[in-house]
Write a structure and sequence with these properties.
- GO terms for molecular function: hydrolase activity, hydrolyzing O-glycosyl compounds.
- The chain is mainly β.
- 1% of the residues lie in helices and 52% in strands.
- The protein is built from one helix and 37 strands.
- Strands 4-24-27-36-29-30-31-32 form an eight-stranded antiparallel sheet, with no helix packed on it. A seven-stranded antiparallel sheet has the order 25-26-37-28-33-34-35, with no helix packed on it.
- The two termini are 31 Å apart.
Amino acid sequence: MSQILIQNPIIWADVPDPCIIRVHDTYYMTSTSMHSMPGCPIMKSINLRDWEICSYVFNTFETNEHHELLNGKDIYGRGAWATSLRYHEGTYYVCFSSNDTQQFYIYQTEDIEGGSWERHVLQGLHHDPSLLFDEDRTYVIYGNGKIMIAELTKDASSHKEDGINEVLFETETDGIGLRCEGCHAYKLNGFYYLFFIEWPQFGNKRRRQVCYRSKNLFGPYESKIILDDDLGYLNQGVAQGGIVDTLEGEWFSLLFQDHGAVGRVPILLPLTWSNNWPVLDRSGKAPLSFLASFPDSENKPIVVADDFNYLENKLALQWQWNHNPDPRLWSLTEKPGCLRLRTGYLSPSVEFAKNTLTQRTEGPACKVTTSLHFKNMKVGDRAGLVALQHYYATVAITKESEGFTIVMGKRGENGYEDEVESLPFDKELIYLRMDFHFVNNQDTVKCYYSEDEINWISIGETHQLRYTLDHFMGCRIGLFNYASKDIGGFVDFNYFRYEKL
């Protein structure tokens, strides 16, 4: 075992609401995925610093107009929220609620990296749930301010008939803007520990981490503020997450912090115990970096370049679709070495474009380039790169009745795309680029195009990216193609090149 340096954030990208477990010598983490499909990513690590995506829990979890981006419906800011990951008696469990369906989903498998997941759907919203296995009984604890506890069947497949379903306790209300939520529940050393995030409107006025504990599951509970720190970043509190131990008996906590338009980034902190209370800030401040005893390992990328050289229609795990994809309208094999995106639906804007293929962006800066053949577009089609948030930006090729134009656009106040700048383009191959910078909430993207991938021409304006609750997700970079007048056209993306700066 060696000493490795851990620097926060451990991933400078959107990995919100992390939930972590250890099984033998491997750590697994899940996070919120909302409208990105496949959903509920599973990441693994051997040292809590270097993470890789190893699987997803589901490809899609509902099929309806909202999940399919049909008739102006969507699940932006909703979908799969705040997953709870647990391992019990040889089985892995993942549960979450969906605000759009008002249902509670529980998935389980014996093989977290390669197995299929059995799905159970329970009625009723169970906000920010945490599974708790307590000897031969199983519970879910959830809620916002009013903390609820419901008993499930032992195998966590349904509510237990005549089981407990009641208010566990209510958290503080005076001066609190966001009351306790984001529960992570544990039974350790004769105590029940419940970890929450809350947001007071007094003092530092930032989110903080609170722990409730009791020797009896049903209380009474006492509480302590265990972290109120921003790591020196714009008074954005570090909070909401769980704890995990190592084989050697050391403890750590994995939380998140809002980092502007790039999203909510995971923060790892050493944890000690004092009088059976968890301590995260013994020195008064959470560390930006620290040494820890872990095996060293390779840092696997969470965002990757792609030459689309596949033998089957199966993408790298780093890719996710915006909402449910239509498998009839994309292919990696129709033209080998290319991603083909066909139009099959009319769309008023890129926010409602089917089959937009996305990856995360990363701070402090990153750059993406692509090229595409577009001669098979139809009038009204638009294809290219999108910086995908509610206040999105695009750089794209558009077919009009008189020919092709290259366009930099952004979301207008009416919800549709405003063209910031457009120029005629008469070649058959175009190169597009986006440069991202994420510094102290001054988050921007700049767009470029080229005829030869050597001489890059700026187009449009430097666009201010914004993290808002409309999408409730960090900025993603997407490849898109949509029709506004007539379906059936297609484009071929030749590659996706990515560089973290």
